[in-house]
Specification:
Helix 5 packs antiparallel against helix 6. A hairpin with a 5-residue loop joins strand 5 and strand 6. The relative contact order is 0.09. 60% of the residues lie in helices and 14% in strands. The chain is globular and about 75 Å long.
Length: 253
């Protein structure tokens, strides 16, 4: 009997403690309020707590990046602007703030010229989110089926021709939108890029602290991840230079 009472009391206390804990909505409101009041440490604490609970969104990443930017923590700001941009690549506000943050980095790296067609395709893909491309893909499939039925069932030659050419155009749209949706999703889930978090790091010729220093990178510089060996990772920067750094110096986007 006594054991049952104790267990019941523990259960009640546990439920009460959980009920007293702030929800993600509470933390979101508290974080926004702190940000408006200029209390960026408090805002970061609340936003980070939401992330620790397994929730994320473009707005959460964006607000967190803004808070870090206001604090002068450029590496973290660039990291979370990039995370927000992966979810909503068409948001110009994110791109604008990211450009402001990147302008404050010390490294000025010449970018290897990209084939114009690849650049154009990426621009088109980034004009909408993965979800939007997926919806367009489904719409294209529905249109394809409609024109296909028109071609198969119509008795008049003119209608059959319209169905054939309409289905052909819809097929091309389906291929394009599906490709953009898949590419956007892969990019969103990719872990091939990272941002330098340390104020300055020496990139080595091999995964060894005694190896030759090749070049120096500073906080906020974005790198692409290649090979990983123990606590070391090979990185490449925008101009094509490669080298090794300890994983603790960078954080994946």
């Amino acid at each position: 009997m006594r054991k049952t009472i104790i267990l019941t009391l523990l259960l009640i206390v546990s439920v009460a403690v959980k009920a007293a804990e702030p929800t993600s909505a509470d933390r979101w409101e508290a974080g926004n309020k702190a940000y408006i009041e200029g209390n960026y440490d408090k805002a970061i604490e609340e936003y980070t707590a939401i992330l620790s609970g397994g929730e994320y969104s473009m707005k959460l990443y964006y607000n967190l990046a803004n808070a870090y930017f206001k604090k002068g923590e450029n590496g973290k700001a660039i990291l979370y602007y990039n995370k927000a941009l992966r979810i909503a690549p068409s948001q110009e506000d994110i791109r604008h703030n990211l450009a402001l943050a990147e302008a404050q980095t010390k490294d000025r790296i010449a970018v290897v010229p990209e084939f114009f067609l690849n650049r154009w395709l990426r621009t088109v893909r980034n004009s909408m989110s993965c979800t939007a491309w997926s919806v367009l893909s489904i719409v294209s499939l529905a249109i394809l089926l409609a024109f296909g039925l028109m071609f198969l069932l119509a008795s008049r030659l003119g209608v059959r021709k319209a169905g054939f050419y309409g289905a052909l155009v819809a097929l091309l749209l389906l291929i394009a939108t599906t490709s953009f949706a898949i590419s956007s999703r892969n990019d969103m889930l990719s872990h091939e890029e990272a941002v330098v978090m340390a104020s300055a790091i020496s990139v080595k010729s091999s995964p060894d602290r005694s190896a030759t220093d090749l070049f120096v990178l500073h906080e906020g510089t974005k790198v692409k991840l290649l090979t990983e060996v123990d606590e070391w990772v090979e990185v490449v920067i925008a101009d094509g230079k490669k080298g090794w750094t300890e994983r603790k110096n960078i954080e994946e986007i």
